[in-house]
Structures are given as C-alpha cells and as structure tokens.
Design goal:
The chain has 13 helices and three strands, in the order ααβββααααααααααα. With 295 residues, the protein is mainly alpha-helical. It has one domain. Helix 9 runs parallel beside helix 12, helix 11 packs antiparallel against helix 12 and helix 12 packs across helix 13.
Length: 295
C-alpha cells in the first residue's frame, strides 16, 4: 500500500495512512521529507504497553485496537512523537541517534538560560495583551487566538510567554483547554491541543534538564547513557528532537514551532538543519560528519 497526502507525506502502510491523513496540511517541508526518507514503521501490540518506539526492531507500540483507540485524536500527536523518534533513531545503536548532533546547541541554550521569573499575580492591562500578541508572527497569533478565544485568554498567554514565564503560560493554556475538552463538539481538537502544549513543555524540559519546562523527570534521563555528565544524556537531544517534530507536523504548527523556537533558539535551529540533512539523505553515519549549523 502506498500513496500520499495533502502535505506530501508518503503513505506506505495502513498504520501510517490512519494517522498521516490527520497531520497538518502545511507541515514543515523538511519534516515531510524526513518522514519519507525513513523506512515505514511497523506497529506492535503488547498488553500494558503503548505509545513507544522500539529502535532495535523499528516499530511503534500501539493499542490493540489502534484504529479506534479511546484516546481518539490525541493519538495523532502520539504517532507524530514516536515517528520523530523513528526518524532520529532507526538504524542506530543504543548509544544514541542522529539527534546527538544537537548536544552543542543544547549547551548553548543552557548557557544563555535566564533564571525562572517569579509568578506574576497581577492583572495585565489590555494594552499589554496587544503588545505581547504583536510579538507573535501573524500565523502563530491567529492559531493562538483560535485556540484561546475566551476574552483575554490569548493575551494572558502571550504576556506570560513574553515575560519568560513559560511554565505559567503552558499551565494556564492547559487549564483553560481542559474545560473545553469535556464539551463533545470540540473535545477531540482540544485534547490534541493539550497534548501539543505538553510536548512544548517536554521540549523545554529536555533542553534545560528540567530546570525549565516540564515533561520527563530527571530520573528518566539519568538512566540513559551520558554525553557530558548526568545532566546531558542521549535522552535529552532525542526527546528534544521528537517533541520539535510534533510541533512541525500537527495542526497548529505555526504556533507550536514558534513556541519551541523562541524557548530554545539554538537547539531549534540545529534541529531544523539536522531535519533537512535527514530528508535529503545527507545524514552521515556519524553525527560528527554533519555540517555545523549557523546558530
């Protein structure tokens, strides 16, 4: 079985077809090419296990009734995340994937990381909302306003993000959208948006080793082979890569990709260079053979 979808993703298996059709029609071209350059990923089911990529055998662990999983559209996001791992890790050994090349950029972002701001319990004025929203690119701002249509909600998110209160912005978004996620008319879209913002937090947590953002705990990373001590393991760039990939391919990517790029600009720029190399078939066996990104 083969074919394609509006964004240009190749569709080679029934598993891919079921989820690729719901990815963003304007997914980043390099993300599409990297997907197409990666061998088709098989699906496996094991009781009590779900949503994980197994690099040694190149398959994704998915629910037994994956076509009708109770998680619904959230599985579009899960699929994108695990495909991101597949693009990074297929054909590589346990010491890490192509994403190892992101390590220097992660160190640069960590060196430039400002301290976590104190929570702001004041009420921003509407003028502050407008100034903060204007700092977002037009397409990103349009998505944010569509996802948070309640009066002032998008402005509050933008103000918190502009002030560096990233966790507060993401947490506020998740609280607001959880109330929408129980309304049947838009439940599926809201739940996917919740998943997407959690992946933004996971990306930030991977780059900054949990000092900022959220997602995987430090104990998860400490169990993986170190690159430069326990605070930078093979897991940090791997999770950063997979989460950035989600933000490039699901609906709302205009906002999501802006958020991850603004939170960790060096890492995101290096990710985009690596993604292009993979899609063009220029990803050499050793990460050391890749060109140095201009970041």
């Amino acid at each position: 079985m083969s074919g394609g979808c509006a964004a240009g993703f190749a569709v080679r298996t029934s598993f891919e077809r079921h989820y690729v059709k719901d990815l963003a029609v304007n997914a980043h071209p390099d993300a599409v090419r990297a997907f197409n350059a990666t061998p088709p990923v098989r699906r496996k089911f094991f009781a009590g296990s779900r949503g994980a990529y197994r690099a040694g055998h190149h398959y994704v662990v998915a629910p037994q009734r994956w076509e009708r999983t109770v998680d619904g559209k959230v599985w579009v996001g899960v699929f994108a995340h695990e495909i991101g791992h597949a693009i990074d890790l297929h054909g590589r050994g346990p010491r890490g994937g192509r994403s190892l090349w992101l390590a220097p950029a992660i160190r640069r972002d960590r060196a430039a990381m400002p301290p976590r701001p104190q929570p702001d319990f004041g009420r921003p004025r509407r003028g502050e909302f407008e100034r903060a929203l204007c700092a977002f690119p037009d397409a990103a701002r349009a998505v944010l306003l569509a996802w948070l249509p309640a009066d002032g909600a998008a402005g509050r998110f933008a103000v918190a993000w502009a002030d560096g209160r990233l966790e507060e912005a993401i947490g506020g978004f998740i609280r607001l959208r959880r109330t929408t996620a129980v309304v049947s008319a838009c439940r599926e879209d809201a739940r996917l948006q919740l998943y997407a913002l959690a992946k933004v937090g996971d990306f930030i947590g991977a780059v900054y080793d949990g000092r900022r953002g959220g997602g995987h705990a430090r104990t998860y990373y400490r169990e993986l082979p170190p690159l430069i001590g326990p605070s930078l393991t093979v897991g940090h760039p791997a999770e950063a890569f997979a989460n950035a990939y989600v933000c490039d391919v699901i609906t709302g990517m205009e906002l999501l990709s802006f958020l991850v790029a603004s939170a960790a600009p060096h890492t995101h720029a290096a990710y985009r260079v690596l993604l292009r190399c993979i899609g063009e078939g220029r990803c050499a066996p050793s990460p050391d053979d890749l060109p140095v990104p201009a970041v």
